[in-house]
Amino acid sequence: MSLFFIMLSVLAGGLLYQRGGLDALRDGLAQGLILLISITPLVLLALLLAGYAQSLIPPRWVESQLGRHAGWRATGLAALAGALMPGGPFAAFPVVLVLRQSGAPLSTCIAFLTAWSVLGLHRMIIWEIPWLGWRFALLRWLISLPLPWLAAHWAYRLERRTTREETA
Fold first, then answer.
1. Continuous H helices in 85-133
2. Looking at residue 67, what DSSP letter applies?
């Protein structure tokens, strides 16, 4: 994956140099450095919190509440947590990392991320209701409500299918 981003960066740099010369390339590097400096503390703090969470949440609890044998209850709990999870990807992805490393199945993690992305109550309150009105926000939220369960279901089925194919 790193090789892909290195190649993409070199390609983008080449295109930038071709269009605007060395000054454009320097400007792009400076903007990238500013972005790196501003984001790095967030990423470090999010990973630190993920490490704390992994130490605080016993793997047995994850297995019993969110594991394969928890069924739709696990999907519901993950969807509720995702919908209530504030913040951007720097908050949500470390949580999923901790869940996966603690034994949560792929389907549960996908339910969490799907709910976080389409059912986030904080985004609905902060952005959708003030800008688009409560009717729009509520209708969009209700239409999106089944998506974490659908995503978890299909993730479970695809994971089972690929696991069977690998063992065959």
1. 89-101, 106-118, 121-123, 129-132
2. S
Inform me whether the pLDDT recorded for 167 exceeds 80: no
Tokens of 103: 């034994």
Task: At 163, list the tokens.
Answer: 């696991």
| This prediction's pTM | 0.74
How many residues appear in the chain? 168
Domain residue extents for the chain = 1-56, 59-168
Q: DSSP class of residue 76?
A: H
Q: Name the burial class of residue 91, with classes exposed (0-12), middle (13-18) and buried (19+) by CB atoms within 10 angstroms of its CB.
A: middle
CA distance linking residue 24 with residue 17, whole number of Å: 6
pLDDT tops 80 at residue 81: yes
CA angle (162, 143, 71) in 5-degree steps = 40
Examine the pLDDT at 168 and tell me if it is beyond 70: no
Q: What is the pLDDT of residues 91-106, one digit of tens each?
A: 888 889 888 888 888 9
Q: Of 96, 67, 63, nearest to 81 (Cα)?
A: 96
